[in-house]
Amino acid sequence: MRKGYLGVDIGSISTKAVVVAEDGDIVASAYLWTEGNPIGAVKRVLSEIEGQVAGTDVRVVAVGTTGSARELIGSVLGAQVVKNEITAHAMGTLSMHPDVRTIFEIGGQDSKIIVLRDGVPVDYAMNTLCAAGTGSFLSSQARRLGIPVEEFGDYALRSTRPTKIAGRCTVFAESDLVHKAQIGYAIEDIVAGLCNAIVNNYLNNVGKGKEIEPPIVFQGGVSKNVGVVEAFKRLTGHDVIVDEVGHLMGAVGIALLAKSSGLEGDFDFAVREFEFQTMGDECGGCANNCEVVYVLRDGEFLDGWGARCGTGIERARTASAGR
Amino acid sequence: MSERLVTFPHMGEYWIAFETLVLELGATPLVPPRMTKHTLEVGARHSPEFVCVPFKYNLGNFIEALDAGASVIGQAGGGCRFGYYAEVQEAILRDLGYEFEMVNLTSSWSVGEFIADFKRIAPGVSTLRIARAFAIAYRKAKALEAVDDRVRKNVGFESERGAHDRVVGRFHRELRAAGAFRDVARLEERTLAELAALPLAKPERPLRVGVVGELYILMEPFANHSIERRLAEHGVEVHRFVTLTKLIEHGIRHRPHVRALLGEADPWVKYHLGADGTESVAMTWKLMQEGFDGMAHLKPFGCMPEVSAMSVLQRISREHTFPVLFVSYDAQTAETGIRTRIEAFADMLVMRARGRNSA
Lengths: 323, 359
Known about the structure:
The structure holds 2 protein chains of 2 kinds. In chain A, 38% of the residues lie in helices and 25% in strands. By secondary structure, chain A is α/β, with parallel strands linked by helices. Chain B folds into 2 domains: 5-125, 3-Layer(aba) Sandwich (Rossmann fold); 203-359, Rossmann fold. Chain B has helices at 15-24, 37-45, 53-67, 85-95, 111-121, 127-154, 163-177, 181-197, 215-219, 227-233, 244-252, 254-264, 277-289, 304-319, 336-358; strands spanning 5-7, 28-29, 72-75, 101-104, 207-213, 236-240, 294-300, 324-329. Chain B is globular, with a radius of gyration of 21 Å. The N and C termini of chain B lie far apart (74 Å). Chain A binds chain B through residues 68, 83-87, 90, 117-126, 128-129, 208-211, 286-289, and chain B through 33, 36-39, 301, 311, 314-315, 317-318, 321, 323, 326-328, 330, 332, 336-337, 340-341, 343-345, 347-348, 351-352, 354-355, 359.
């Protein structure tokens, strides 16, 4: 019997899970859309994982969660480790590309860069305040142009003369794009221009002032867009590696972090059978009116977040007891 | 005629010193209501959209204080847009129909103006009394800073969670009541001794991070989402150098101070960047050479002096592989993004330190 570590990465757009065995083997993996319901997505992802693990000699002894819903799902699964996605991505990528020196990551809502030297993250940056140049912007523009986002990259590759599109700000980019379409630019050239704009925006904001050295690994949903990958190669002047399992790196990383934590606990896939319910409330204890979110397991208070002081969580606990 | 009630903007716990100042001048203070989301909401609603966020917080404090009955506002200014705060805020508040008197304490940095301003806050007050009031308020601010400094460095390592906060809570209450210089000095001494007696689980060589940037965001935990505390909680000794009393000292000795900073910021900066920009560069450069593990650079979105400093800090960071966490603040109140960034930053510092030790 081998020990296994379950890593779950719950992003705004997609939910990923893997089981890494103690010897580093990835014995199970699953990927699906979060669809605005992280708990539902985790239940579905766990049923896939359970099926894949069933036939092996692996038993899950620890759980790690990462991604924007990491705290909620961490409570639901009783996770041993709950960590941010930047650290998880760095660890996951290092396990597969030990010599990586730069990680580009563009996800649904955010983008980040991690600089590593000798297998240690030494610098990182994340987009601030604004979601310009991330996946959600690309998919809304794809919809505007009537192209499935999956084909976006192919359109870009067919372009011979990419048009210039302002990448500084989503609003400016959008008006540029509309204007270029209306004056008659070919759709391929507009799409290619948009891919360049995304990359320029990334390099000038998130990547600003960072030493970008190869090997470069590019991850996140946008890395599936070949147009953006090509633009990265051209603008950095380096090869850019897009891993087949790039989308799982966060989950792999958090599984490895669960392993190295040394913490173990009972994990049962039957957690899927529980009824989880999340509730949101405004505390009302003071003018801050913190938005408190809490989760109930089969009607019982499990955990809560979002309060600046202890009052909000206590109120949530009391409110859920009286329900 | 109703009573003259003197109010001022909030910044961290300095209200204790401001309140003492007004009291000792012989006027009646009105401490603005504690900062909440409401403060920011009303402040932002009546501010120009693109102004830096401290303006919005100040304006929110003033509106809440005026609504509570304040009739005199004390405001300051600085070497950037901050220099126009008092005038613009006064105009906005008058347009909103409030009646009050605005006293800008830093319209010029001359002793004569200073005294005249204090006499506007408390008509008829003697110059001697002004000197004493200023001195005791200043002493209280110093005490606040000494305690704050100790907490920043140790709270991340306390063995019993909440132990520091308990001592500091009592300190604030007693500091507010303290009347004489001697009492303030004794209270400070006793509080520092109490803090020193708290059990700590602190490694011999803890992670050290310096915090630099724009003064208001640095000193107002509500506005910076308690970033110092959150850093500390990841096992970091946090160092900060910008304090109110230092700003006053630097304001009085402006030229020699800037000259000294430019010396420390050499070879990165040749001309003064305005406000705290040059200091952000000078401190980062200095702390890096002292072996600090990283820096956090905080600024309101659109802060010109700090934007100028940023490009220099990015170069220092790149050329010396020295981690700098850049955080911009505006009127957003969601904390998740900030917490994710701080946690990732702290994780990275831990991994770097581990890598260095095993190498």
